Every structure is written in C-alpha cells, then in structure tokens.
Amino acid sequence: MEQSLELVSFKTCPFVQRSVITLAYKDIPFKVTYIDLANPPDWFSAISPLGKVPVLKVGNETLFESAVINEYIDDISGGQLQSETPLEKAKDRAWIEVASSMLGNDYYLKVAIDKAAYEQHRDALALQFHRLEAHLGEGPWFNGSEFSLVDTAFAPLFTHQNIANARYSVIDPTTMPKVVDWSERLLSLPCVQESTVTEFGSVYLSDLEEYGSYGLQA
Ligand SMILES: N[C@@H](CCC(=O)N[C@@H](CS)C(=O)NCC(=O)O)C(=O)O
Fold first, then answer.
1. Which of 26, 90, 160, 187 is the most buried (most CB within 10 A)?
2. DSSP secondary-structure letter at 143?
C-alpha cells in the first residue's frame, strides 16, 4: 500500500462498519480515529463536506461516503469485490443504496420515542426485508458465488438487527429464510465479527436507553 489509510469513525456507525469490513476482508492495514459526532472537532468539519463519518484519509487526500470509500478500497487492492459488467455494477450500487435506506429505517426504529414512529419504521423495514427475500438467490452471497461490496454493505444491518433483537428485529425466519441464511453466513465471517468495538452492543443499548427508545419500553 503506497499511502497510509486512516478511517475517521464513530463507535456505533454502521456506515463506518461497512468500510472496516471491506478493509479487513482485503487485509489492508489502517488506523482508526474516533470522533464524537455530537461535538465534532474543527478538523473533521473541514474534511467532511456532509459532516458525516466515515471519512477515509488517504495520505493528504480525503474520501467520504461509505460506498465510494469501499469501491476505492477494492480498486487499490486488485478489485474482486465489484461486478464486471456495467449493468451488474450499476445493480450492485443500487442495492447498496437499498441497504443504506434499510440502515436508516433500522436507526429510526431504534430512536423512535413513540409508538407511531416505532411502528412506522418497523413496518417500512419489514417491507424492505420482504423485498430483499424475494430478490435473493441461492447464495451463498448476494451475487451468488462471488462475495462483493453488496455483502459488505449489508453486513452491518445484520449486526444492528441483532442488538436487543426481540425489541427491534423484523427478520422473520418463517417468511425470510434466505435473509436468515445470508445473515448468518455474513455474521460468521471474522471480518464482520471483528468490525465493531467489543463494547458495541452495550454502548448502543445504553445510548438508546438514555434516548428513551420506545422499543425498549414497549
Ligand atoms: N451516506 C453516508 C451515510 C453516513 C452517515 O449517515 N453517518 C452518520 C453516522 S452513522 C453520521 O455521520 N451522522 C452525522 C450527521 O448526520 O450529522 C455513507 O454511506 O457514508
């Protein structure tokens, strides 16, 4: 690797986790710098046009947006995680966008403080999981035999659905067997297991408790 890589991160962010998984899958060394998103340092505001993590510092340059960062990580390490034809590549990008929307609903479900918001995001997420189930093939990965950036983009959703899952998970094993198989396969990968800080579940849960998450009260 010619340039040193530094990932600007937040401990419970699933979008950061996507990049950690991709870097770990590719066995690429990188440094992690955590920031407090509630009180971001000035240097962060200067390098993150949207004020969001992840940001990847590449030498003196910076990249932002997890999907873009992951394509870059794959490009500098010999490819392999992106489909070959323009059409398949475009479809991968579209499904990564679906994963982002699902991560949004997972988050809004968790931070809902009343029944109406909780049910709205729970139902929206469940509908998205049913659509995903209908789209999935025989596996083992999203694109069949080839592990791809779509897998690294969805894996954090399964980590996050696992937190206090009786309260927040909308994955129904009876009607979503392919989703369950795929999620178990992703969650068993070392690059996914090691992609969160050890205290991830407890940090996230205590934040949600403090926030007054409806899901923890219902
Ligand atoms: N589309 C972005 C989403 C990143 C994102 O939403 N990150 C959250 C933390 S998980 C963030 O930085 N939020 C701060 C803010 O919106 O002010 C990506 O894929 O990188």
1. 160
2. B
